[in-house]
Design goal:
SH3 type barrels; single chain; about 30% strand; alpha+beta; about 120 residues
């Protein structure tokens, strides 16, 4: 009888751990990421500062195929940078034009020469 009771305790603990894992992955991690993003946005608004993209540095990237990583996405945007004005970047991505907000950009990389055609 004692062995059956011990098996039930293990099953309950396994289910308990499984429920907490699913809760953590599906609810807590996205909530933390969303909270961090909101904190970043609000801190800029409270200070009254508007972060501008450095125009001199962006002139090097205009006309080249680049990969642009955004703050809230795991994949970047890959395309030719057409123009950069104020806080926006115009990217030609396989024939489709996209406008990217400079506040959301974390990284810009120039692709190797074989992709520049």
């Amino acid at each position: 009888m004692k062995a059956i009771f011990e098996m039930r305790v293990v099953v309950i603990n396994t289910n308990f751990i499984l429920i907490w894992f699913v809760l953590f992955v599906c609810i807590i991690i996205p909530a933390i990421n969303s909270r961090n993003l909101n904190i970043l946005r609000n801190s800029r608004k409270k200070k009254g500062e508007k972060r501008m993209l450095p125009a001199q540095l962006l002139k090097e990237f205009i006309g080249k195929v680049c990969t642009i990583t955004l703050l809230n996405s795991s994949f970047g945007v890959c395309g030719r940078i057409e123009a950069a004005e104020e806080n926006w970047i115009k990217v030609d991505e396989k024939g489709k034009i996209r406008l990217l907000n400079g506040d959301m950009i974390t990284d810009i990389k120039i692709m190797p020469e074989k992709y520049q055609k």
